[in-house]
């Protein structure tokens, strides 16, 4: 029993770590740009401070920059060092992980994209009211820190950004991120496999409260949270619980809450958390009926929250080959290329940070970086050596990050032709495994099919800015067929019934592929 729980916790933490890696690296990049190029004065100008307008600025900047609640930790630390008001910092910390270009595009292809727009506006209401009240109750609590020594223009200034990123990766930020990931492990210990499948019903008044208890220690990237929201909408779950999942599940984690307590004290932290709970719960109950899609028939259960539960059944036999090999198999199959690249870069960043910490005993690299550069006597070099102010370089860097996230949308959501090819391969794996009785293999590939089905719709929407009801219907039928097949495999239905469902699922895919290819040929 305990062996399954321990190894299951390791799997959940490993999955969350890989999902967070690209966003943590992005957060370190933004922190480095603000620290070494923007400076405290220009950071205060960018974010504003101690006004309602600054809360709106922080909310807009948070929506534009890609990130997650773990990647926001190094940024909020830098904002506090820059003397930004607490309400503005907390507004950014909460809004930055909620949406990014990838998740917004995903949300716009849902059957009711207005709901996503309403959620975004509600998040603005949350950060504005909570931030304004908090700053009014506790004014002027920002520290006044001196500016770090300026680094000369040129390559040294760029190296200084890398150095501060590396040092931050092995500072207290790493401990806070570990605490945030520990929340994922805590949930997997407390929640048995599949225990949330029949929760969050629309007609259950306790759904928002139950989701609050789960979402606060949970960790979800914007894309993960948006996918879970989509599943909740499609299954007729509670809209209020979906809003809480977005705000607290994607917006907060235990590491970020720990940072808030360490910097603002228990009293102020409890006041802020109390304001957040009152406003978010009030909004969640207020939007439940107006935004609920009454045309949908509520499903009796959903797999949207299985990622928060223990992945292994304690009563079942250990996987073939043992738990470590099963964890490696799942991680290898589920990890996206950008997640693997982010993990490698973070490993190199931590290695550099540890090397610099050891090097400090003999030579501090900042001493060399901050040493003024000797003027050159070469006229040609002076002609081409253009001095660009740090804030302008920082602005270019932030704009580049936003541009890369937009370009990344086209990579993550390929053309319908490419997506159909990938979906066909995943469908073959899932249906073939179901036909031959390989349950675990089929249960792995069915969610992969569902993911590519969603990416097919978003990719088409991204290139045409329109998705017809006809194409939505074909995708919905294929998704429903997959879901029924998944339930039949889990319930160990008869082979004849499973074969019949496999046939229906295959036909649904052929109709889906034909619908999209007919549109592409026109």
Lay out the secondary structure.
Blueprint: H1 2-47, H2 52-64, H3 72-81, H4 86-95, H5 101-108, H6 113-137, H7 155-169, H8 172-190, H9 207-215, H10 222-234, H11 239-250, H12 254-291, H13 323-334, H14 337-359, H15 365-369, H16 379-384, H17 390-412, H18 416-436, H19 439-464, H20 469-490, H21 495-521
Please tag this protein with its features.
single chain, 522 residues, mainly alpha, Four Helix Bundle (Hemerythrin (Met), subunit A), 2 domains, 21 helices, 0% strand
TL;DR?
This protein is mainly alpha-helical. It has 21 helices and no strands.
Q: How many whole angstroms does the radius of gyration measure?
A: 25 Å
Give the end-to-end Cα distance, rounded to a whole number of Å: 57 Å
Q: What average pLDDT do the residues reach?
A: 84
> What is the domain total for the residues?
2
Oligomeric grouping of the chains: single chain
Q: Which percent range describes the beta-strand content?
A: under 5%
Strand segment count: 0
Largest sheet: none
Our count of helices gives 21
- The level of helicity is over 70%
Principal-axis shape equals globular
State the secondary-structure class. mainly alpha
What does this structure look like?
The structure is a single chain. The protein has 522 residues and is mostly helical. The protein has 2 domains: 2-344, no CATH class; 414-521, Four Helix Bundle (Hemerythrin (Met), subunit A), CATH 1.20.120. It contains 21 helices and no strands. It is globular, with a radius of gyration of 25 Å.
